[in-house]
Amino acid sequence: MIQMKQVYKKYSNGVMAANGLNVTINPGEFVYVVGPSGAGKTTFIKMMYREEKPTKGSILVNNVDVGPLKRKRVPFLRRNIGVVFQDFKLLNRLTVFENVAFALEVIEEPPKIIKDRVMEVLDLVGLKHKARMMPDELSGGEQQRISIARSIANRPKIVIADEPTGNLDPETSWEIMNLFEEINSRGTTIVMATHNREIVNTIRHRVIAIENGLIVRDEQRGEYGYEG
Ligand code: ADP
Ligand code: ADP
């Protein structure tokens, strides 16, 4: 599903954010990515959805090496990968419906399929009744639900989330986690960078810890492992 071999990333300013990453993530897994700020977590996951290119090494995602992928092929990669961000990244001039439909329009799905699919995923996240609203009329937790709906609208095999609960209060964070659990239980692979110690130590999954661009720990049903 996702396989990295000897992956290095050097940014243009000389910073080495990946220093020989080797990892295999299998279909259906739920993986937390933890580690101190600046450790290389975001770089690790950005390379999976080809937001950053590795300097060296190979990254197979669904058997496609995403490193050398041409820019115009990236939308087809994204069809198989949903992405959820800490700050939601919704388009504020579009309605909730349009935000979710956007990902499907990009890959030119027929309008009827788009409508059905959007309402289906909005229903799954419990916000079908807010389809006509604008993002800024919603709470943070609701906005994150919309961004999760958007991430799964293409029925991707993989959902990648970068600190999805980072801007949310604890109660809302648990609700968002329950949604990821539900999506994972339907067979979708989840890779989630997080600083949420309580969540990682309660809803147990594989934990990959990154420090200085290297995987320093990789445990099934692991713990968060850092203080604070
Ligand atoms: P984390 O997500 O664990 O905080 P990042 O992957 O964001 O770590 O960053 C790893 C290192 O790479 C840090 O030193 C950071 O400053 C640096 N870095 C991240 N993005 C860039 C960039 N676009 N250009 C230069 N350096 C970057
Ligand atoms: P409710 O649906 O009743 O509002 P919440 O989702 O807000 O419940 O969670 C209430 C508390 O239950 C949280 O503070 C958290 O400690 C715990 N909790 C919620 N979901 C989980 C979960 N999946 N695993 C463990 N504890 C959970």
From TrEMBL:
Q: What sections of the sequence does the record tag as coiled-coil? A: none
Alphabetically ordered keywords of this record: ATP-binding, Cell cycle, Cell division, Cell membrane, Membrane, Nucleotide-binding, Transport
How is it placed in the membrane, per its record?
Peripheral membrane protein
Q: Which residues form the signal peptide?
A: none
Q: Which InterPro entries match?
A: AAA+_ATPase (IPR003593), ABC_transporter-like_ATP-bd (IPR003439), ABC_transporter-like_CS (IPR017871), ABC_transpr_LolD-like (IPR015854), Cell_div_FtsE (IPR005286), P-loop_NTPase (IPR027417)
Keyword Nucleotide-binding: yes or no?
yes
GO annotation, cellular component aspect: plasma membrane
Q: Which GO terms describe its biological process?
A: cell division
Provide the protein's localization.
Cell membrane
Q: Which family does it belong to?
A: Belongs to the ABC transporter superfamily.
**Function, as annotated:** Part of the ABC transporter FtsEX involved in cellular division.
Subunit relationships: Homodimer. Forms a membrane-associated complex with FtsX.
What is the protein name given in its UniProt record? Cell division ATP-binding protein FtsE
Q: Print the organism lineage.
A: Bacteria, Bacillati, Bacillota, Bacilli, Bacillales
UniProt lists the gene as ftsE
